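Known limitations

Files may contain more than one protein. Parsers should not assume a single record per file. Below, a two-record file is shown to illustrate correct handling: read the sequence, read the token line, then continue until end of file.
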Amino acid sequence: MAGSLKIDKGPGWIELGFKIVPGSSRTMISGSLDGLIKVKVAAPPEKGKANKELISYLASRLNTKKKDIELVSGASNPVKRLKIYGAEPEKIMQICRE
């Protein structure tokens, strides 16, 4: 993954930014952009569907529970900050390269 991701860390959590592209043909990580992880999501950007799809996708890829992923900011914006409890930055970097 090109570029450097801005990752904030705390005791038992990490927080990082995402750029979401809703309405894609399938949900997938598609690289990085300006320190954010770019994710295409299949869900439309209405009534929180894209946010739920993003959280479900990340929980699946990180092998964690959806309740361990918190939307910190960007509920109605394509740029979002998520706090992920129990995840290691190395695991995030690994799924971004796959």
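...continuing to the second record:
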Amino acid sequence: MGALLRSLISKNLKSWEETLPFVELAYNRTIHSTTHCSPFEVMYGFNPLTPLDLSPLPPNMFTSDAASSRVEYIKTLHKEIKERIEKKNQKLVTRKNQGRKELIFKPGDWVWVHLRKERFPDQRKSKLQQRGDDPFQVLERVNNNAYKLDLRGKYNVSSTFNVADLTLFDVGNEDLDLRTNPSKERGDDVDSLNNLLHVPEGSITKRKAKKIQEAFTLHVQKLANAQRETKNFELKFLYNVSSASQEEHRVKMAREKLCNLEDGTGNEKSVQNCEEVAIQLASLGIS
């Protein structure tokens, strides 16, 4: 109807109120492809007359039988219209669902919940906030399109959700918890965490994301520890080299001093110096 109204008002946008009744009459009297009838005929059982349909009025010969037949006609028409609409909808459903797989949940299954802005305005204030939340358990299947979940009092909303807002919580091969399974045959926790650094197969669940983060943190800590140990080794090596150089220098000076004293006159001062040098060499472990 909007397209028809735009084509009639042209550039004079202020004349839409005067044109609207004519557009409405034309729309309501046009036969639709789905119902094969006009909206006016579906509602009242006949189409309104147009100037082309004007003719001399017939004589007054309407009776109650005609009214009864009109009622029966409207009932039959409504039944046919309903069947046509259902048939059209079935065709649309078949075309839209082509290649899709019907998703059925059972009571006890765990599912993710998609947080829509209309239903969860506080949780979707920002585009960067999560669009899904913790896996919740299915309590009841209302039908194939609606399920009742155990929200555990987390949200003040209805616990019934459409299947389009639910995703199966698939733990995949990461179902084992490292805290309850500290070790396993032919492997350990570190290897399992390191393996998570690779891109996992299947959907990324919240548990997988948490373990990937733990593996990444552990990997960074290992790199930091290795770098710290290397730095400590280098400092210790430099310290040992420096200490050895100092000891070597002290020994050299003591020996030179002892040689100088051996060439002396042998007076009391020289003897005292020799004793001091001997004590220094003994402290250094040199005889």
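Parsers that stop after the first record will miss the second one. For reference, the second record is described as follows. The helical segments are 2-9, 16-29, 39-44, 64-96, 189-195, 206-262, 268-283.
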